[in-house]
Amino acid sequence: MTAxxxxxxxxxDEGKGKVVDLLTAEADEVVRFGGGANAGHTLVVxxxxxxxxxxxxxxxHSRPRCLLGAGMVIDPKVLAKELEVMSARGxxxxxxxxxxxxxxxxxxxxxxxxxIREAGPNPIGTTKxxxxxxxxxxxxxxxxxxxxxxxxxxFRAKLADNLEGWRPVIEAAGAEMPDPEAIAAEYLALAAPIxxxxxxxxxxxxxAREAGRRIVLEGAQGTMLDIDHGTxxxxxxxxxxxxxxxxxxxxxPTHIDAVIGISKAYTTRVGEGPFPTELHGEQGEALRRAGxxxxxxxxxxxxxxxxxxxxxRHAARVNGLTSIALTKLDVLSGQETLEVCVAYExxxxxxxxPPAIGLERVKPIYETVPGWSGDITxxxxxxxxxxxxxxxxxxxxxxxxxxxxxxxxxxxxxxTITLGDPWA
Length: 424
Ligand code: IMP
Hints:
Elements: E1 3-8, H1 16-24, E2 29-32, E3 41-45, E4 48-52, E5 65-68, E6 73-74, H2 76-88, E7 97-100, E8 104-105, H3 108-118, H4 131-139, H5 152-172, H6 180-188, H7 191-194, E9 198-199, H8 201-210, E10 215-218, H9 242-247, E11 258-264, E12 267-269, H10 281-291, E13 303-305, E14 307-308, H11 309-319, E15 323-327, E16 337-346, E17 349-351, E18 363-370, H12 387-400, E19 404-408, E20 416-418
Parallel strand pairs: 1-10, 1-11, 2-5, 2-10, 5-7, 6-8, 7-9, 11-15, 14-16, 15-19
Antiparallel strand pairs: 3-4, 12-13, 16-17, 16-18, 19-20
Helix pairs in contact: 3-4, 3-5, 5-6
The site of inosinic acid has 19 residues, from α4.
């Protein structure tokens, strides 16, 4: 088994960072395949907190190579800073990193337009990192790519064309057109630390695979934020599901061996959009407090709710999940009973999976299950968990027809129960 995809099974923030961190110990290559600085993972090393947005979670380890795939949108300012952090820690030796020449660049016009739209009548609740407008440029075939940082004259020419493309939007909003010369000067000055790492990520991954090296494809966001399979229009602008791992990295679908979906033991969402099991008022607040549910990128409080099994079934299908990593089980401790959404009702019809359109109209059908109490962070095997917590895990496996391979019972790397081989 050489290639393992890690995807979020809900609306992002499922704790992918910790799981990737665990898998990194067994990986030779860790590649991000989509999204940009809208993602964020907080890593604690030697008591110090480091937040990365672009480089894979593996960046703070010394061993696996870190790759940024073609499906990503890269903010050069953020990347230059993260490379600096890695370099200062001696984690950027020759050959440590490959940045796809094809990845698109997030530039000031993208931030500007993201902000204009979010201030308009139908905000998505984006992270305001310029993600949507950058992917829009990619689809319009007028974007600037990381490889363009190599060629200052070409960069300037493409930038001028690109800005003209945005002129009607910017002027209609009454905003000031960005100055192409100022952008070129600022961003070309950032090229020096980035250019040496540019390469062909797909080619590198194929070679790595042929050499039997183990590859982790690290997803960002979550299935319900996927541009095609999520709660459109309240989604991000990229393919965050397992299919996107292939298009965004260049590794072929037939070369993926396993797909692990990360799910919290409950549900959270940031930004606008439907969320059938959302808890309002004190119950939601209690879950937010217990789980420390505030965004790593924006600091926004996350919306919190009960576990939603239709969402997990959808994630299992669209990603072809071979196993699940269930995180934050410890956060649910101390509740007498728990509600679990087992299905929805839509227009009088029971559904086991989310409708493609109309999620805002579904009524969750709940089952009440026994809760458990006490600190479970010390458990290292299923037997050490209270019976009700064990039943909760088994219920999920049965409902989704996917085994749980990793069970996280606390933030620390050691606070983990391994139930199966995620690579299998
Ligand atoms: P954008 O990706 O910044 O355009 O935001 C679109 C939607 O995706 C918003 O609802 C964001 O809150 C959400 N989103 C984007 N990235 C993440 C993430 O890493 N975690 C959780 N939600 C995210």
